[in-house]
Amino acid sequence: MKTQTINKKQEVAEKTERITGSEAIVKSLIAEGVDILYGYPGGAIMPVYDELYKFQDKIHHVLTRHEQGAAHAAQGYARISGKVGVAMATSGPGATNLITGIADAQIDSTPLVCITGQVFSHLLGSDAFQETDIVGISTPVTKWNCQVTKAEDIPGAIAKAFYIAKSGRPGPVLVDITKDAQITEFDFRYEKCDGVRSYNPVPKTSQEAVNAAAELINNAKKPMIVWGQGVILGQAEEELKTVIEKAGIPAAWTILGASALPTSHPLNIGMVGMHGNYAPNKLTNECDVLIAIGMRFDDRVTGSLDTYAKQAKIIHFDIDPAEIDKNVKTDVAVLGNSKESLAMLADALNKNSHESWLQEFKDLYAIEFEKVIKGDLHPTKEGLTMGEVLKQINIESKGNAAIVSDVGQHQMIACRYADFNVSKSNITSGGLGTMGFALPAAIGAKMAAPEREVVAIIGDGGYQMNIQELGTIFQQKTAVKIVVLNNEFLGMVRQWQQLFFDKRYASTEMTNPNFVAIAEGYYIKARKVTKRDELEEAVKEMMASKESYFLEVCVEKEDNVFPMIPSGASVSDVRLS
Amino acid sequence: MNEDIKSFTISIYTENNIGLLNRISAIFQRRHINIESLTTSQSEIDGVNRFVIVVNITETNATKIVKQIEKQVETIRAYYHTEDETIFTESCMFKIKSDLLFNEPQIQNIIKESYARIVTVNKEFFVLEKSGRRNEIESLRRDLNVFGIMQFVRSGRIAVTKDEMKVTELLKAFNNQ
């Protein structure tokens, strides 16, 4: 063992080479397996771009049209691949433009490493040109951040950044590197980080806690699972399936948990939350044991906490101890990585089935189908619905596409109706609700998984928040499919105005440009659909296209998304109209 | 359902890093919790810092906050304690005109009875230092205020717990994982 360590040290020493800080940054990224990064150059990061130019064959830098686009593209890359996404920007405005993406990654637990240039260290604090305290600004929205002012600290900081971003509950980190550190030469060697002494990323799963959970589940008459993204991040899809199937438990998902279990699975009972399915929302307040797995009881999931699952024993599986009892008091908490804890749970569970309980979900689904789903997917009215567009995409993709949605009505429709056969296929801004997320995130997703069909579903509002990224799609020849569901409104806000503000449509009506002409301006094949009989053929053409394709579908202007739990109401008060 | 607001002493063991204070205080700020006092210093372990933060909150909030602090990468461990569970003190300094020391004989009695210590005396002023509980410091300040105080300053609370902290063991356990 000891000789091994010595040999390893010698090997490392031999690998030392004298290079600049900026070359060290690029070599560190390559050592971490980064093949693609997204960014935008500028004064304080130029030495790094010069090195990126030299290493083009090893690492592909994607020039987005705005740093926010770079951050979201890196998120899309991370969400579909499970790998760390990397974004780069210059100091000042370059760095602050990353913030929305970083905040989004923080609340949605997405592993991201952001590298920002900073002014010379002797200028720090002097209000120098393009100086901003990005470490201070990003502190509340990063898992970890640091500023590097010496070249020799670069490899250590980057190694730590990657380790922290991807370990435990993933999240965004930011490394701010001064220009003098970038241009100074030093003896470079790279060692990956495998631990930080003050940081315990994966708490140990206690067998006693698993047993206590299993006992509650084994004795339950009406158990219900709600899983979240923790299952996907823990790569525990198989373990989840085993648990569900062995104990015969109906299982619902949060928006970020979608796709961990195929849509068609007989025990998949749909989405919980504000616009989730009727049955799992309603029956949250009927179940006797609620098993929450890798989810955080967000207010959009729980509605009013005072009336949330009060009758049930609560079991909470999570990797993050700070989530336990944060919103909902648990009876049994099981800490640890979901892959491990769910495997332990599966072993401790009795084989079971809950047919009559499952039937209750099916009965409520039938009601939801009659009152909502039928009208969404098989409309008889003249105007097109968002739901029928999704249905058409499902038919063409056979449920194998990754769906990247933006924020608003179309997002809820996409999450409710998209078919998912493959995990990591629902890429959306869940926690932060960032309009403008989808177009750049779809770029990142397609580049990380070029073999997969990636369809961005975007509203006319969110599309225009990062519409400049069409330039990136054009330059990179990224074969993403872009569907804009155009209702000429900020639809979700309009829906709330209709329901809660007496139809006073304050600043939600949009006069939109010629979207087809804009896409064509970027040489992207484009088509607009206004009538039902054109839809099928247009979606077919889009999905068959080998290149990027823009499809605008003009949908009914004042459709609402139901079911809906009004803000602050109980999950059992979920409305169907 | 309404829980009592109590005074809690939050002790945090951390790495000694720039920016961590910001990260920790942001957790209080987000929940709109006023920090009554905050002290940071070297702890009993080399290279490990200790924060002592006093806040008035409910115990439920104290648990949540401590977990969110502990979640920060560079926090080794965070605890919360009630006043009964800690031994604590504050210290303060008074700068007072030297004339008063000779012209107002009562001042000498106040100093003696309060167990305050004279740090320095010169022709113009003298400096008094006192450690103790908040009420002792406050009563001394009131007594001296009658004669006029040139400057007064009080530190945040420092506290040790009656319970063992076991941070060294924790650090070892982290490293052996």
How much of the residues of chain A is beta strand, in percent? 15-25%
Sequence stretches where pLDDT stays below 50 over 5 or more residues of chain A: 1-5
Amount of helix of chain B: 25-40%
Shape of chain B: elongated
Cross-sheet strand order for the largest sheet of chain A = 3-2-4-5-7-6
The structural class of chain A is alpha/beta
Structural class, from secondary structure content of chain B? alpha+beta
Major beta-sheet overview of chain A: 6 strands, parallel
Give unreliable regions of chain B as ranges.
Answer: none
Helix content of chain A: 40-55%
| Main beta-sheet annotation of chain B | 5 strands, antiparallel
Mean pLDDT across residues of chain B:
92
Oligomer: heterodimer
Q: Distance between termini of chain B? A: 41 Å
Task: Give structural notes.
The complex is a heterodimer of chains A (577) and B (177). With 577 residues, chain A is of the alpha/beta class. A 6-stranded parallel sheet of chain A has the order 3-2-4-5-7-6. A 6-stranded parallel sheet of chain A has the order 11-10-9-12-13-14, with helices on both faces. In chain A, helix 4 packs across helix 19. Chain B is 34% helix and 39% strand. Chains A and B meet through strand 6 of A and helix 1, helix 2 and helix 6 of B.
Task: Kindly list the characteristics that best describe this protein.
heterodimer, A: 577 residues, alpha/beta, six-stranded parallel sheet, disordered N terminus, B: 177 residues, alpha+beta, five-stranded antiparallel sheet, four-stranded antiparallel sheet, 6 helices
SSE arrangement:
The complex is a heterodimer of chains A (577) and B (177).
Chain A: H1 2-14, E1 17-20, H2 21-31, E2 36-39, H3 46-54, E3 60-63, H4 67-81, E4 85-89, H5 93-97, H6 99-107, E5 112-118, H7 134-138, E6 144-148, H8 154-166, E7 172-178, H9 179-183, E8 185-188, H10 207-218, E9 223-227, H11 229-233, H12 237-247, E10 251-253, E11 268-271, H13 278-284, E12 289-293, H14 299-302, E13 313-318, E14 332-335, H15 338-348, H16 355-377, H17 386-397, E15 402-405, H18 409-417, E16 426-428, H19 438-448, E17 454-459, H20 460-463, H21 470-476, E18 481-486, H22 491-500, H23 515-521, E19 525-529, H24 532-544, E20 549-554
Parallel strand pairs in A: 2-3, 2-4, 4-5, 5-7, 6-7, 9-10, 9-12, 10-11, 12-13, 13-14, 15-16, 15-17, 17-18, 18-20, 19-20
Antiparallel strand pairs in A: 1-8
Helix pairs in contact in A: 2-3, 2-8, 4-6, 4-19, 10-15, 12-15, 13-16, 17-18, 17-24
Chain B: E1 6-15, H1 20-30, E2 35-42, E3 48-57, H2 59-70, E4 75-82, E5 86-97, H3 98-103, H4 105-114, E6 117-121, E7 125-132, H5 134-145, E8 151-154, E9 158-161, H6 167-176
Antiparallel strand pairs in B: 1-3, 1-4, 2-3, 5-7, 5-8, 5-9, 6-7
Helix pairs in contact in B: 4-5
